[in-house]
Structures are given as structure tokens and as C-alpha cells.
UniProtKB/TrEMBL annotation:
G domain residues: 78-187
Matching Pfam families: MMR_HSR1
Name this polypeptide is given: ATP-binding cassette domain-containing protein
Organism: Treponema phagedenis
Highest taxon of the lineage: Bacteria
Amino acid sequence: MYRTNIQGFLFNWIYSQKGIVVGNSCSFEDIYKNMTNLFYSVDFLPQEILEEIKRKVFNIPELKTLIQKVKNKRAPRFVLIGDSGAGKSTLINAIAGYYAVQESDVHAGTKNAEHIHIKDEDGKTLWEFLDTRGVSEQSKTPVTKAEDQLINDINTMSPDAIVYVRKADDRTNIDSKLAFLKNITEKMYETKKVLPSIIVVSSQCDKLTPSSICDPKIYTKNKRKMANIKERENQLEKLFREHSLNVKTILSTSALVEWSLKSEKLIGLSKKEQMQYLKIDYRYNIDLLREMIMDSLQSESSKISFSMFLRVRESLAEKITEIFADVSSHLALSPMSAADILSSLRVLLVMFIAVLSGQKLSRESADEKIALFYEEDLRFSFFDMVQEISSSFTTTFFAKGSVVSAKTAAEEMKLIGSKSREFFNG
């Protein structure tokens, strides 16, 4: 068994590595993916045993519930609100990463609220936007009618957040527009009982003085330009605060992209085909905006709550340990020698509990962890002694010896699971 003398420095080094803390940035989707990959990558156990463990693990009720949420996850949904000319359609294209919707520099691009689905090449929806009429256009309609129409569109969509787009160099009065936005959010609250997240985008920040500098690689090093960008963000923050609108974030962006092909021809091409006509790409903070948008998701079907997983993680680890203990018990009852298989099972259990904590462990590293467990806990020596005695019993009294071996194997596996949970989860 594990009788290797691990030197003190190795013991201390490995234990210093246990603190890869899983934070809120981790997702259950990643953990589920790693769990699945672990089963596929294991080549040191008989396939029938591996399949039995896999079947039992993925039938744990709490795990099945979380997995179902992953499989039912829909694309994120957002409402874009802002004046005509603020660049809402251009922003959608920048987020999508290709020319997905028609843009217009001359007239109001969106006549009515428009549902836009950004899809991948397989037709799967990646993003869903509700591109509304410009706020100025809304104000030409009687206020109540405009609000009711927009609220109806929004509630039908059930968005995860509102993205308010305001041109960075727009100095027109914004009070009536923010009052309009506040009324909308309050009516959304009346219907959904949840205030929507608001992300404010100060668009076309490349047009701020000095406007001749359009390349973000250059103007991010220009103190004057960056000071103007920051000043505009501060002004917007103050205005939203004065209207008691809680904002998740205010972000300056540029969606400046130029193509060498007319837009009406671009729109019919695939993303890959469009890229050959890309002339200039001066997008700024678009990747950061994507991250903030994804981080703002409130719908449980859009983002699996990691806190939900944390609440059941310990229970999952215990139930998985019980499954391994049960399999070990049945293996030990076998008249054939199962020592090597039991040893491999212990390794897999340690690797599995590591995955539940958001970490990945090689077979060799898991073996080292088990060696440490054996060295620090005398109960493992007792298990070794019992196994040796039960082996001699098995030669003469097969039934009694097998029963003792089965119970010992199960208890040893439970202790491995307990030490692993303590090691990885604290």
C-alpha cells in the first residue's frame, strides 16, 4: 500500500497548493464539463466499473437538477435604449463580431422595436437584443402610449438587462430621456418585481477631442483624450444618480469598423466571408462590454448560479463518496484479487472531489495526495492490518474473510473521501 516516505518539504509544498479558491467567477458549467471529461479521460479502470460509477453519479438528484439547468440555458436577452444616431445597431454588430444588422448614418435606423437574434453558424442563438426606437422618436408619441408599447415589448421579451446607449459627444438635454427610462424601469418592476440591471454605454468615444485620433491603440495613450472620456463617464454617472437610476456600470466604447464592401452585400455573407472585407477595426472596450453584459445576467436559465452549486457541493461530494464506497465493497467481495482496482478507485475519487472544488488533478498528483493522507492518519494503517488479516481468513474461511474485506474497503474509501473533501474544500 502507500508506504512511501514523503519528505517534509514535499508535504508542505503540496498542502500549499490546496488553496486554489473557487470564487464567484467559476461556473457550474465548467465544473460539469470537467466532470464529463474526467470520465472520458480515465484509462486505468475497467470500462464496466467506470460506467457503473458514471451512471450512479449522474443520477444524484441534486446533480441532475443542476445539469438540466445547463442544458436548458438560453441565450442572454437585452434591451437597447437610446437616441437615434447613438449607434445601437452598430453596437450590436460590434458585440456580435460581424456585420449582423443593417446600420444607418443618415436616418433613424430602427423604426419600431425590433427583435434581433445573433446566431452562430449552426443556427444557435448566442445573443438576443430588443433594439428599440430612439428615445427622441418615443417622445413624439403620446407618453403613455409610448411607454405602454415599450413595456409590452420588453415584458414579452423578458430581458436580463437594459443597455442604455448615449453618444459620448451628445450634449443635448438628457433629463426627459432619463425620466422616460425611469418610468420604464418602474413599470418593469411592477410586472416582474425585480428592477432590471442598467448598463450605460457612452458610445462613439473616439469622436471626443482630439477627434482626429480614432485608433484606440493610440488614443488610450493620449492623456487629453482619456481625460475627456473619463469626464464624460463621470457626467453620466451624476445624471443617472440625480434621477435615482441605479446603474450597474458606465462604460465608454467605440464600435468603429470599416468594410471594403457595401453593407447590403456584407449582410448576406457568413462571418468568415465578411472578415476578408474588414478594412479597419477600431473597436474599443467591446470585449469588456461583453463580459459586463454576461455578468449582469439575472435569469437563472441564462446563468447557472454558482451559489446554488456551493449549497449542494458538500452533499454531492458525500454522495459520490458513498457511491465509490459501495462499488469498493462489492469489488472486495469478489473471489478474485481487486487490490489494483480498489487502488485506482481511490485515485479517481480524489480526482473527482478535486473537480467539484474547481480544480484539476492528474493521476500522479492524486496518488501523492493519497500518500499524504496515509502518512498523516493512523486509521489507514489499521485498514491495512485488517485487510491482511481478512486475506488470510479468505484462504480458509472465504465468506467471513470477504465480508471483512468488503466492510474495510468501504470504510477506507469513505475516509479517503472525507480527507479529500477536507483537503480541497476546507
